[in-house]
Amino acid sequence: MVVWKDLLVERRSKETLNALFFFSLLLLFVFQFTLGPDRERLAAVLPGLLWLGFILSGLLGLGRTFQVERENDCWEGLLLAPGDKSAIFVGKLAGNLVLMLVVEAVLVAMFVVFFNVDVGGTWAALALVIVLGTVGFAAVGTLFAAMTAQVRARELLFPVLLLPVQVPVLLATVKATEAVLLGEPLGAVANWLQLLGAADLIYVVVGVLTFEFVLEG
Amino acid sequence: MPDHWGFVVSAYGLAAVGLFAYWRRLVRQERELDRK
Amino acid sequence: MTRVLGWLALLGLLAGLAAGFVVAPREVTQGNVQRIMYVHVPSVLVAYLAFAVVFVASIAYLARRLEAADRVAHASAEIGVLFNGITIVTGSIWGKPTWGTWWTWDARLTSVAILFVMYLGYLLLRGMIEDRERGARYAAVLGIVAALNIPLVHFSVLWWRTLHQPPSLLKAGPPTMSSAIVVPLLVNLAAYALLYAYFLAKRVRILRKEQEALA
């Protein structure tokens, strides 16, 4: 229910999506201007750049997860909603996931076009890695977004809390993306995929279990 | 390899300073609270 | 009781100093600079202990709403960050003469740095929420997430550094563990643990008195 509500809200206020697309485009230009001339270095840092783009867009998008509730004073609505608070978490998480994956897909497409990346036969493996990484990012991000929604310096505290926690996921996804783009089989990065799987599981479970404590009072 | 006693002293020294400073802060905080 | 802890800790620290400089031998490869290990390693272990306590206390608070658990979590996080900072500083100073650089993104230093930033964020969160009850709840959630993240940090950084990474100049880790080295290490570890307990007791008491004053 919450997912549909959020998706509808997003569709009606396309501003977030549009802003994120535009932001990603800008990032692309910045990457090109700073690294473009050196093709080799660009190819080497490509996975890192891609995830940097994902993360920066993610921070913007995730940070606003509870903006609507905050601005319109619907916070009580969330608190008084019947049923499991964790359902709200799952709903918000799903909404954030969809948002992030859409932006990431567009970003990957732009990378392929502008940086002439050959994704070719590896796109399925790439998709898997991206999904695994995004779930981890979105899970903690949704939880922390709720926690920082009503804090004074929200825009500052949210990334400050989220980024250190996300380091393992970031390391794993960049390394896995690197290998996948080089054409290596998924088996070669099995350990990274396992780490991502474990991280995703932990983050989602903790989010589900602790969300009620974040939403109280 | 030379002994680098300077580094040893700095390391122990900084650690000691940090711990001592924190201890002093705790003592001061408690004293202030007891006074109230 | 706290007094006793304090004196014991002081005694332990002095004993540790003696052990680290008198009992422990001059290391073969690195020379006497290796003695920094007797500060560096106990510090990081006590930091881990402190963060483990934060984890347990956070769960206890959410499960039972024990105010004392909240105070313990807060205090332990603070002290953990302190020892974590000492770990980083002493590690860096140790690294300069042995590795030739103040900082390197090796597995251990990187992990410890990430932990430092995570729990610093914890303290920041606490500082920025005015409502005490909400602050306690949110901090508890963060305390749980951060602690569960520690093994993930450990393995991700380890694999990042050891797969396809060239070895560093000198392996500045604990050398082969003869008892002349293990004993001073344990003595210092015990001393630092006592110091942690002493700091914890005092800090928790201060927090309690602060809250009573506001009530």
Topology:
The complex is a heterotrimer of chains A (217), B (36) and C (215).
Chain A: H1 2-12, H2 15-35, H3 39-63, H4 67-71, H5 75-80, H6 85-114, H7 123-148, H8 154-181, H9 190-215
Chain B: H1 5-35
Chain C: H1 2-23, H2 37-64, H3 67-99, H4 107-128, H5 132-162, H6 179-214
Helix pairs in contact in C: 1-6, 2-3, 2-5, 2-6, 3-4, 3-6, 4-5
Q: How would you characterize the overall build of this protein?
A:
The complex is a heterotrimer of chains A (217), B (36) and C (215). Chain A has nine helices and no strands. Chain A is mostly helical and 217 residues long. The mean pLDDT of chain A is 84. The model of chain B has no long low-confidence stretch (mean pLDDT 89). Chain C has helices spanning 2-23, 37-64, 67-99, 107-128, 132-162, 179-214. Chains in contact: A-C, B-C. At the A-C interface, helix 7, helix 8 and helix 9 of A face helix 4 and helix 5 of C.
Number of strands of chain C: 0
Tell me the strand percentage band of chain A.
Answer: under 5%
Q: Return the string of H and E elements of chain A.
A: HHHHHHHHH
What is the 3D form of chain C?
A: globular
**Stretches with pLDDT under 50, minimum 5 residues of chain A:** none
The counted number of beta strands of chain A is: 0
Helix content of chain C: over 70%
Largest sheet of chain C: none
Strand content of chain C: under 5%
Order of helices and strands of chain C: HHHHHH
Beginning-to-end CA distance, first to last residue of chain C = 26 Å
Estimate the mean pLDDT confidence of chain C. Answer: 87
The CA-CA distance between the termini of chain A, in Å, is 22 Å
Q: Round the Cα radius of gyration of chain A to an integer and report it.
A: 18 Å
Give the count of helical stretches of chain C: 6
